[in-house]
């Protein structure tokens, strides 16, 4: 690298280490070193960096969502609140990496995650992640925790909500109200949070000997209509369940479809939401379902990352239970 940039090895070290000594360097010299580093595909080794300098007590937060969740209406915002509160309590500052939000297509580049090395360790969140890049980062020894289950990355620590059990509890509560036919409406999405809900739904139906099915809609607003709801009722479905996502598209479509069908909940049909409703639907009756402990998820992720930084490993329970929410959209199944 020094040869390519036309400088000494000492100068290369100064530039790549951030020149903490404050030695005067010409801007052109620094630019040549950085250009050489890019050409050679240089990625700083996190372990070596921590040996060379004390930790800076910075925790990173990297989001794979289309917009970084700093708006209070964003479904991930309460997670950031929990992250911030726990980080402050433990003496850490936060660095928010927003590049993938402004240009999400770049999140899969081979060097897209290297900038998180500015922090001692990083929290990641988002339904869809570049698995290969995250795996590479962790295998190089960088402390990382994903907020949300990530079984496919066996080297990555994660904390997540127990969606499967929470969904099963909703099904059992609906069964207690006399519902024998149920339908789960999901978006066309293979995210683990979605498959966990489906697994809990199917398992609870089978355990109680109930009938039902799962509908995965690529365009919920177009596919979940009043006519569809009427057809489901004719087939014996009396309770409709929808998953929560960033957009809550399935729940929005279900509410609209029930209204189009001329039905009311819970008098004529029961509805449940597997998660929390979006802020812009606060004027609707509170849905039956469960609340995701988002602030606790954020706090648990910080505790896990802190353990990785201080002890090199984390002894923790990755699943956080969700609390059932009675709400006002589910009632006893109609007699006919």
TrEMBL record:
One Pfam family matching this protein: Peripla_BP_3
| Keywords from the UniProt entry | DNA-binding, Repressor, Transcription, Transcription regulation
Which GO MF terms does the UniProt record name?
DNA-binding transcription factor activity; transcription cis-regulatory region binding
Database matches in InterPro entries:
HTH_LacI, LacI/GalR-like_sensor, Lambda_DNA-bd_dom_sf, Peripla_BP_I
Matching SMART domains, A to Z?
HTH_LACI (SM00354)
Calcium as a keyword of this entry, yes or no, is: no
Transferase is among the record's keywords: no
List each copy of the HTH lacI-type domain by range. Answer: 1-53
Q: Can you name this protein?
A: LacI family transcriptional regulator
Identify the species of origin: Streptomyces mesophilus
């Amino acid at each position: 690298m020094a040869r390519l940039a036309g400088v000494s090895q000492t100068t290369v070290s100064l530039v790549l280490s951030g020149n903490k000594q404050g030695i005067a360097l010409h801007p052109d010299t620094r630019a040549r070193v950085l250009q050489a580093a890019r050409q050679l595909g240089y990625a700083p080794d996190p372990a070596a960096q921590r040996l060379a300098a004390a930790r800076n007590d910075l925790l990173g937060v990297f989001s794979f969502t289309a917009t970084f969740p700093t708006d209070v209406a964003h479904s991930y915002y309460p997670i950031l609140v929990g992250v911030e509160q726990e980080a402050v309590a433990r003496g850490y500052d936060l660095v928010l990496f927003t590049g993938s939000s402004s240009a999400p297509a770049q999140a899969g580049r081979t060097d897209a995650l290297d900038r998180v090395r500015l922090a001692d360790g990083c929290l990641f969140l988002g339904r869809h992640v570049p698995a290969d890049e995250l795996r590479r980062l962790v295998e190089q020894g960088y402390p990382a925790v994903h907020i949300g289950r990530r079984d496919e990355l066996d080297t990555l620590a994660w904390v997540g909500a127990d969606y499967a059990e929470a969904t099963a509890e909703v099904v059992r509560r609906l069964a207690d109200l006399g519902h024998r036919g149920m339908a789960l409406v999901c978006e066309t999405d293979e995210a683990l949070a979605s498959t966990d809900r489906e697994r809990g739904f199917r398992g609870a139906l089978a355990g109680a000997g109930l009938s039902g099915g799962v509908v995965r809609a690529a365009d919920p607003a177009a596919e979940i209509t009043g006519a569809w709801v009427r057809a489901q009722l004719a087939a014996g479905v009396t309770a409709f369940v929808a998953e929560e996502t960033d957009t809550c598209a399935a729940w929005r479509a279900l509410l609209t479809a029930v209204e189009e069908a001329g039905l009311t909940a819970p008098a004529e049909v029961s509805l449940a939401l597997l998660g929390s409703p979006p802020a812009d639907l606060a004027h609707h009756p509170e849905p039956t379902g469960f609340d995701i402990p988002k602030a606790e998820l954020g706090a648990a992720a910080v505790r896990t990352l802190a353990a990785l930084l201080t002890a090199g490993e984390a002894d923790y329970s990755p699943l956080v239970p969700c609390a059932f929410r009675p709400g006002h959209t589910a009632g006893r199944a109609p007699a006919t």
